Amino acid sequence: MPKIALAEFNGAALAVHPKLIPDTVGTASRNQRPGRGDLRPWRQPLPVATVPAGRHTIYRMGRDVASDTQYWLSWPGIVHAVRGFVSGDTVERTFYTGDGAPKQTNTSIGLAAPPYPSAYRELGVPAPASALLVTPNNTGEATDTELRYYTYTYVTDLGEESAPAPVSAQVQCKTDDTLAIAGVSPPPAGAYGIDRIRFYRTQSATSGDAEFFFLREEPSTIGSTTDDNRALGEVLPTDGWLVPPSTLTGLTAMWNGMAAAINSADGSVRYCVAYKLYAWPVAFETLPPNAKAVALAVYGQRLLVLTTGKPVLVQGSGPDALDEQPLEIAQACVAARSAVGLGHGVAWASPDGLAYFGDGGASLCTIGLLTRDQWTAMNPESITAVNYEGFYFASYLDMEGVRRGFFLDPSNPKGIFFLDQGYEAMFVDEHRDALFVLDGTAVKKWDAGEASMTALFRSKVFAGPERNYSAARVEADAYPVTMHVDVLDLHPDVVAARIEARPGLFTSPATGVLRHTHVVDDRRPFRLPGGVLSRTHQVTIETSNPVQWATLASSMRELSEEG
Fold it and tell me: What is the predicted pLDDT for the residue at 177?
């Protein structure tokens, strides 16, 4: 067996026998930052703000202001928030589901006082409940008559308009007559911000199915008005624009001003009118076949609907022109917050492992990294995850109920990178390319502290002819670095004898294993105790400094022949 050379640190693979995994992959990886090739620890997260206890969702408003510390919204439940799509919006209208009925807030009302949001509005504008009562005045001079129908809508101070009221009874009048309009229902109680009423009527029709045209607008306090035969305006735009169901969850921004959400009452997917997140027509709906929607995630201009069965791929330019394609992927979603869009595809927790679908098709990212039993032991139902710099960053509850974490690159899953600590909630500020995590009541900025975590990498089991390693060298940015060299598959009597003969140099972390621990102070070669022949060896490195490579050899001369 040649020298042991650790020159890449590509995470861990636990599903394959330790002797069979590649030299660049280990049997353990903790607190290691992926993507650089070396063994690089994450920096500790930096506390930046606090939120009330018991929160499970965080979200920062005021993102046009460059601040880590201000305007943290938080909720005790699982909330999905989306910023509005209107350009030039100076109050950052924000829509969210998961905190009771769907709601909206903005910087004017939501940031009045902590904890945020301090105020909100119910999302949507209820339609008037009763039809208008319209009476001709019979004052016109025209000889021609026509049939008309009338309706009206409520309008908020934000310009949101409701669906129309029930259509009035048919009215026959002269073409130049004025008509009295009564029976206006007052706006409903609630924080809707309704301040106007718009009236519409048909031009000339023989049925109630004709188009309605704008007639006039009045204050919301009015109980009656007049059709004074003025010129009509635009066609009524809000027919079918319903208030979102109170059971909507998982609000997700799409493309072209669209948004989607899951109706938890029946497992369907609903879509808003483009650029109108308060209007959710029944006609805009996806019903997954033989399954219920669990989570939604977007990549490119594609929405992947993850279900209790097979996923459904949704594409199209508008909510009234969406194409639905059920996929032949037998991977249900077991955790709504595990679904993450990664630009090139979507990853989610399934019963078998971390599933993935993208332009290249479907795959199971954890094949070769975790067995199904190992995956199940990570409680995939507890996973919450985000996309951080192209990596799937997940937090989960282990078998002891402790939050842990892991990183994985679904596009190139060479290894899995575990974290000692996971987090109840995470938030990615895309405007500032920053990740924030919730640790108790503390909001912390990821990888931003001065101190580093301690990264650990345990190599594969190197097997070959019997050999004794007596020299080593570690290349790092800074020191100290701790190296553990394990000699494996020894008889317990041999292990006991070596520990007795040279106390302080050896330990035995497991039966048949003899370990020497060396604290490396610089990049110069150093000697190992040696003196024990074995076919199998394993190396562990613990460090708070980036390590580029480590080498073990049978002699200092052999070590000097590196390269």
Answer: 93
In terms of DSSP bridges, do strands 361-364 and 46-50 run parallel, antiparallel, or are they unpaired? unpaired
**Which amino acid is residue 449, in one-letter code?**
G
**What Cα–Cα distance (Å) separates residue 283 from each residue in 241, 348, 416?**
10, 28, 43
> d(Cα 539, Cα 472) in Å, to the nearest integer?
11
Tell me which residue has tokens 């004709």.
Answer: 210
pTM: 0.92
Q: Answer positive or negative: Cα dihedral of 65, 258, 389, 426.
A: positive
> What is the DSSP code string of 464-485?
EEEE---EEEEEESSS-EEEEE
Residues found in the chain: 563
How far apart are the C-alpha atoms of 296 and 222, rounded to whole Å?
A: 43
β-pairing verdict for 94-97 and 526-527? unpaired
Q: How far apart are CA 328 and CA 350, in angstroms?
A: 14
When pLDDT is cut at 50, 70 and 90, the band that residue 421 belongs to is very high
Rounded to whole angstroms, the Cα distance separating 24 from 17 reads 14
| φ, ψ for residue 501, nearest 5 deg | -75, -35
Beta bridge partners of 335: none
What does the alpha-carbon distance between residue 299 and residue 83 come to, in Å, rounded to a whole number? 18
| d(C-alpha 519, C-alpha 528), whole Å | 11
Cα(526)–Cα(88) distance, integer angstroms: 64
The alpha carbon dihedral of 164, 169, 174, 180 has a sign of negative
Q: How many CA atoms lie within 13 A of 281 on its CB side?
A: 15
Pairwise CA distance, residues 507 & 514, whole Å: 6
Sign of CA dihedral 196, 197, 203, 205: positive
| Long-range contacts, 489-496 (Cβ 8 Å, 24+) | 489/534, 489/535, 489/536, 490/514, 490/532, 490/534, 494/532
Q: Would you put residue 451 in left (φ > 0), alpha (ψ -120 to 50) or beta?
A: beta
The beta-strand segments (E) located in 229-292 are: 248-253, 259-263, 268-271, 285-286
Chain centre distance of CA 183: 47
Counting residues of the chain whose pLDDT is more than 70, the rounded percentage is 99
**CA geometry: angle at 41 spanning 470 and 335, to 5°?**
120
> Pick from 241, 154, 153: which is nearest to 201 by CA?
153
Asked if 214 and 230 touch (Cβ cutoff 8 Å), the reply is no
- Amino acid residing at 105: T
Beta strand 434-439 pairing with 442-445: antiparallel
Identify the CA nearest to 427 among candidates 109, 72, 84, 98: 72
Q: Taking the alpha carbons of 423, 424, 427, 428 in that order, is the dihedral positive or negative?
A: positive
Return the minimum-mean-pLDDT range out of 252-261, 353-362, 484-493, 554-563: 554-563
The token pair at 499 is 């520990």
